[in-house]
Write a structure and sequence with these properties.
The protein is mainly alpha-helical and 460 residues long. It is 79% helix and 0% strand. It has 2 domains: 204 residues, Growth Hormone, Chain: A (Up-down Bundle); 212 residues, Up-down Bundle (Growth Hormone, Chain: A).
Length: 460
Amino acid sequence: MHQNNRNRFILLITLIAALGGFLFGFDMAVVSGIIEPVKLQYNLSSPQEGFFVSCALLGCIVGVAVSGLLSDKIGRKKVLFIAALLFLVSAVGFSFSQTYSLIIFFRILAGMGVGVASNISPLYISEIAPAKKRGALVAYYQLAITIGILVAYISNLFLQRYAATHAAEQNGLFSWLFAQEVWRGMFLLGVIPAAAFGLLLIIVPESPRWLVQYGRDKEAAGILAKLNTEEEARLELAAIKKNSTQKSGGFKELLRMPLSKLLAMAMILTTLSQFSGINGVIFYGPTILKSAGIVTSDALLYQVMLGTAIMLFTFIAIWKVDTLGRRPLYMIGSLGAAIALALTGTCFLIGVNGWPMLVSIMLFLFFFAFSLGPLKFVVATEIFPSNVRGIALSICIMTMWVADWIVNLLFPVMRDGLGIAATFFIFSFFCIISFLYAKKNLPETKGKILEDIRTVKNTN
C-alpha cells in the first residue's frame, strides 16, 4: 500500500473509532439542556432530580466494568459495536419515554454506552496506531469528546431557540419533539452519530494485537501491513508474538510487579487529572463569564463558548504529543494549570472580576486541554501488555469516573464552606502534585512499540 493511502486508511479508522468519544461527549453534555424541562414536566422531587442527573454514572460503572474483560474475550471491534447499539437504543428510548422510570432506565443504558466507549475506543486506537503516530491518534479520541460536547451545546442552543420561535406549532411528530417538548429533540439527535458509528464500524479491522493473542497471526499480519511499511509490520508482528505468551490475563496478574507499579502510576495520574477541578471549573463557568460581561443570562451560549475553547486547545496535543513527547507536555500542562487556577483563586480572593478572571480560566482550559485531559488516555493505553490491556484500562477509566464523582460531590461543599477562592487554590495544589508525581514517575513513551514500553525509564 502506498504511504499516502496508508496514512488515509489509518486516519479513517482512527476517526471512526473516535466516534465513540464523540458520543461519550455528546451524551454527557446534552443532559445540561434537559434537566430543568424534565424536572418541570415530570414534577420531580429533589431526590428524583438528583438521581436523574447521577444515574448515568451507574451505567458508566457497569459499562467500564464489563467492557475490559469482554473486549479481551470477544475482541475490541465487537465491543465497539455494542457501544454503538447502546447509544442508539438509549437515544431513541429516552426521547420517546413517557414515564420517569423509563427515562431512568434509558439514561442508565446511555451511561453504559459511555462507559464502554470511554474504555474501548482509546484502547483500540492505541493498538492499531503506528508507534510514531500513536500519541496524536489517541489524542484524537479526546478531541472527539470535546467536539461531541460542543455539538451537544450548539444543538441544545439551536433547539431551545427554535422552540421559542415555534412554540405555537403543533403539526406532526417533529413539531412536538422540537418545539413542544424540546428536550426530546435534543436527545433524539444522538441517533444520527450513533447510527453512523455502528455502520462505519463495518469497515474497521480488528485489533492485530487481539488477533495474535488468539493465534490468528495471518489476519494480524495482513492488518499490520496496511498500517505500516513491510519492514515495520514484520518487526511489530514479531514483537507482539514475543510478548503474547498467554491469551488473556486477569486482575491477579496486574497485582504482580512490574504491572502493579504501572497500574498504580496510571491510576494516580488519572485521579490527579480529575482533581484539577475541570468539572468544577466548568460548573462555575457561567458566573465567571457573566462577571466578565461576555454572557448575560444565556447559560447555553456560555457552554458553547467554553466547549469551543476546549476543542481548539486540544489540537495542541495532537500537534506536539509525538514530537515534544508525553512527559514534557504533561509537566508543562500540569504546572501551567496550577498557575492558572491559582490566578483564578487570587481573582476571587481580592475581588478582581471581568477580563482578568476570564483570562485566568481560559488559561486553565488551555493547559488542561493539551495535557491533563488527553494524556491520561494516551499513557494508560500504552503502558500495559496486550493480554491485560483491556482490564487495566477499564480500571483506570473506572478511577476517572470515581474521581469525577468525588469532585462533583465535594465542589459545592468546598465552595460554600471554604469559599470559592480556597476551592481554586485546592485544585491548583493537586495540579502541583500532578506535576511533581509526573516528574518523578512518568516515562517518555513516544515512538516506542507498545510491547517495548514497559522497559522505558523516565528521564529526570
